[in-house]
Design brief:
With 179 residues, the chain is mainly alpha-helical. It has 5 helices and 2 strands. Strands 1-2 form a two-stranded antiparallel sheet.
């Protein structure tokens, strides 16, 4: 009798194949520069570095899940519900992050595009989406919702935004570059 492959092994294999497709097909076709570029005899981070690191982490996690000793029924309905709730939090957060700024500037003359690189407009989407993401994930993890978790989420998003925005004059906070 053949040994049965567990659902969590199938899930791990799916993400291992996904990581390989990202690293070897999608990222090279989608980026203009490599992982590291040489500009005037100096090494500069290329466009492909971030996505390649993310895909590598996904691949390593999948590989560790494949190599783990199997147990029965690791992927249950509770696990699937948990993953769907996390996907819901991420989707809602990214939607808020993308559309909060343009909605806040709806009545402004010229719309959001001319304002997207000026305070406080360029912080709106990042702060609201980041607050929702951190507060929502904390709430799901603790199985209770507290305003303090959202306050911590706001503070963390603000610190991240300031660390990106203050030292670099020409950097636009995500997702404002695409708006």
């Amino acid at each position: 009798m053949k040994p049965k492959i567990s659902p969590d092994t199938w899930l791990a294999l799916f993400f291992l194949v996904t990581a390989c497709v990202l690293i070897f097909i999608w990222i090279p076709l989608d980026t203009d520069s490599g992982i590291v570029e040489t500009v005037r005899r100096k090494f500069v981070i290329g466009d492909a570095l971030g996505p390649t690191v993310a895909a590598t982490v996904i691949g390593l996690g999948a590989l560790l899940a494949v190599l783990r000793p199997t147990q029965d029924n690791l992927l249950s309905l509770q696990n699937i519900a948990w993953m769907l709730s996390l996907i819901g939090v991420f989707a809602a957060s990214l939607l808020v992050m993308r559309y909060a700024g343009p909605l806040a500037a709806f009545a402004q003359e010229g719309g959001y595009r001319p304002l997207r690189a000026t305070p406080p407009w360029h912080y709106i989407g990042f702060l609201l989406g980041g607050t929702l993401m951190i507060g929502g994930l904390t709430g799901f993890a603790q199985r209770r919702w507290k305003a303090g978790d959202f306050a911590i989420g706001f503070a963390a998003a603000l610190v991240i935004a300031l660390l990106y925005d203050v030292p670099f004059d020409d950097l636009i906070l995500p997702p404002n570059g695409d708006v």
